[in-house]
């Protein structure tokens, strides 16, 4: 989404619109002639009481709900610059890793002359869900501009809210995690009864988000390395990362799946139950969120606070960068002041976060929602950014639990037109992102299901994946049920011990001519249940316009064994595929 699409015609974005002289900076509002005439009585020339400036803010996912609510509240009573210009806030949320990657991309383009500094797509305000990613962003931009301090240090960025990292589990399993070495205890054990002899016997199933995309996943990974190495994070060295990779890999063997969003992973754990995942590393606010929304049949989950954990402080980051004009800086400072005000900080509390303003209580951090308002823990610090970069590389190449995914692509006749080329682009991006420990079986189905093209992550098999994608042709029917069943059977035949197993189905149609009916398919999938490492989740993507596919059927197929159903169109399918790729 472009921020400019959120700014109404006549609102100041990078430079004030001057109607009298018919002057606009390039890439600005793209107003129609009719719209310009309507604005003439208001716009005048330059800023003033009839003008607005909309400040785009890109935030980590944990702050997304708060930012949207804050923007709505600010819109009702906006602050004003000295000349009377009203200041509005426009929010967009993404994984903290995505925030860092996007800003790094913009900074490179501006600093190297590939984009104008007043490009309206560049966020003015930022936030990530913790200080590790903020330090990493500082480090990466310092590599681009060594003589400039484009991103403030965490201590110089005002806090907006926080939410400590916790283990989410059931009350019956909580006691076993209340220890000084919880990660190493997980590595040594296979059953929760080994952690607590008085507790229930249940296999350990662990989930956290991917550290390449999500702050909670990165904080979890850093905490693992720190505990295994026996050092505080800030004391870790590059040699420690290499030396202790095997110890972290031993913890990762319990992973059920990864994910791109902490809250979505927490909801999946609540929906699928403790036999799908018995422990999750999430924010305290995620525990509050799932318990506040749970249905009567879903179990209350509990936050367990490690003796040392990350406070996950979310800060307002105002870059000292060429893409932030003096007017935008002044407007952003007014917004930061408003975001820290008691009335706006109460919105953070409503989201289950701990407000940064000490005058506002964390009203939802209570036992009824599985949290402990009196929890005491030592707050971990960020490692050096070079060490963090090494941890991310080591996780991707050596530590991450390997995966084997059957990627099932509908190439029936209904995929003709713009659908197939768009799907091909998203498939190329998906395959480019798989890691060296991952295997993908590529299935092209219509009224047939040929044997898959099997590729491993890395450059060696890249040409095979590109040839598969380029060779897709839209024709034939849609034997959807048989294709899902055949892909599942391939995973059962080919998998190796310790792999995450999943079927990903991209289809724009309804089943036609399958041997298996829907009920028979669901029964088959449930046989790959939650009881062991051979569980196979099915993730379905309905592609195209509503009505092209049967959303209810695709949801039933996905949820029969702990998977998920999503929808996409030619504009959004790439993002849907990227998010799914993170799960494995």
Radius of gyration, in angstroms, nearest whole number: 25 Å
Major sheet, described briefly?
6 strands, mixed
- The percentage helix is 25-40%
Helical run tally: 20
Q: How many beta strands in the DSSP annotation?
A: 19
Distance between the termini: 26 Å
Structural class: alpha/beta
Portion in beta strands = 15-25%
Q: Overall 3D geometry? A: globular
Low-confidence blocks of residues: 1-46
Strand order of the largest sheet: 16-15-14-17-18-19
Mean pLDDT over the full residue set = 87
Describe the protein:
This protein is of the alpha/beta class and 584 residues long. The protein has helices at residues 33-43, 64-76, 96-111, 131-144, 171-174, 182-188, 215-229, 238-243, 245-252, 262-272, 284-293, 326-339, 342-350, 385-399, 419-433, 462-470, 480-494, 518-526, 551-559, 573-582; strands spanning 52-60, 86-94, 125-127, 159-162, 165-169, 206-207, 255-257, 279-283, 302-304, 308-309, 313-315, 354-355, 378-379, 403-410, 438-445, 453-456, 500-507, 536-543, 565-568. Mean pLDDT is 87; it is low at 1-46. The protein has a 6-stranded mixed sheet, sandwiched between helices. Strands 7-6-8-5-9 form a 5-stranded mixed sheet. Strands 2-1-3 form a 3-stranded parallel sheet. It contains 20 helices and 19 strands. Helix 7 crosses helix 14, helix 15 (419-433) packs antiparallel against helix 16 (462-470) and helix 17 (480-494) packs parallel to helix 18 (518-526).
């Amino acid at each position: 989404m472009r921020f400019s699409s959120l700014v109404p015609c006549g609102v100041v974005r990078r430079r004030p619109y001057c109607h009298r002289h018919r002057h606009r900076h390039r890439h600005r509002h793209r107003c129609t002639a009719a719209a310009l005439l309507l604005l003439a009585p208001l716009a005048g020339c330059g800023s003033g009481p009839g003008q607005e400036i909309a400040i785009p803010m890109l935030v980590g996912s944990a702050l997304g709900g708060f930012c949207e609510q804050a923007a709505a509240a600010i819109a009702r009573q906006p602050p004003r610059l000295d000349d009377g210009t009203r200041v509005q806030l426009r929010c967009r949320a993404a994984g903290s890793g995505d925030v860092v990657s996007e800003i790094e991309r913009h900074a490179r383009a501006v600093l190297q002359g590939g984009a104008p500094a007043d490009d309206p797509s560049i966020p003015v305000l930022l936030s990530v869900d913790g200080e590790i990613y903020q330090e990493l962003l500082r480090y990466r931009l310092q590599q681009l501009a060594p003589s400039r301090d484009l991103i403030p240090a965490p201590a110089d960025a005002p806090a907006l809210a926080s939410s400590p990292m916790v283990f989410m589990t059931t009350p019956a399993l909580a006691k076993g995690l209340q220890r000084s070495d919880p990660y190493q205890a997980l590595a040594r054990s296979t059953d929760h009864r080994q952690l607590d002899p008085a507790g229930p016997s249940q296999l350990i199933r662990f989930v956290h988000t991917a550290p390449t995309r999500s702050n909670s996943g990165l904080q979890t990974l850093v905490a693992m390395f720190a505990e295994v190495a026996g050092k505080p994070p800030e004391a870790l060295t590059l040699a420690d990362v290499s030396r202790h990779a095997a110890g972290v890999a031993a913890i990762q063997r319990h992973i059920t799946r990864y994910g791109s969003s902490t809250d979505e992973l927490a909801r999946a754990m609540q929906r699928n139950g403790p036999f799908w995942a018995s422990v999750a590393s999430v924010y305290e606010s995620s525990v509050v969120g799932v318990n506040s929304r749970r249905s009567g049949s879903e179990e209350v989950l509990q936050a367990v606070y490690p003796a040392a954990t990350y406070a996950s402080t979310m800060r307002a980051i105002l870059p000292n960068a060429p893409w932030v004009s003096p007017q935008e800086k002044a407007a952003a400072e007014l917004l930061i002041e408003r975001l820290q005000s008691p009335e706006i900080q109460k919105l953070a509390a409503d989201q289950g976060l701990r407000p940064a303003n000490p005058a506002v209580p964390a009203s939802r951090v209570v036992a009824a929602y599985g949290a402990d308002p009196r929890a005491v823990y030592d707050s971990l610090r960020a490692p050096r950014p070079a060490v963090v970069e090494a941890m991310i590389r080591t996780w991707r190449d050596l530590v991450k639990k390997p995966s084997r995914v059957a990627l099932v692509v509908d190439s029936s006749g209904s995929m003709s037109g713009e659908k197939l080329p768009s799907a091909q682009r998203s498939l190329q991006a998906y395959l480019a992102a798989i890691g060296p420990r991952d295997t993908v079986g590529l299935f092209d189905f219509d009224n047939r299901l040929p044997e898959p093209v099997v590729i491993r992550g890395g450059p060696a098999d890249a040409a095979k994946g590109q040839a598969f994608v380029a060779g897709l042709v839209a024709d034939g029917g849609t034997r959807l049920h048989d294709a899902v069943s055949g892909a599942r059977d391939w995973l059962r035949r080919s998998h190796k011990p310790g792999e995450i197993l999943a079927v990903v189905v991209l289809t724009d149609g309804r089943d036609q001519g399958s041997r298996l009916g829907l009920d028979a398919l669901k029964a088959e999938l449930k046989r790959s249940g939650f009881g062991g490492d051979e569980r196979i989740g099915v993730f379905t993507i309905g592609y195209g316009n509503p009505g092209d596919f049967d959303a209810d059927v695709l949801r039933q197929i996905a949820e029969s064994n702990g998977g998920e159903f999503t929808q996409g169109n030619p504009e959004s399918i790439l993002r849907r595929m990227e998010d799914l790729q993170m799960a494995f």
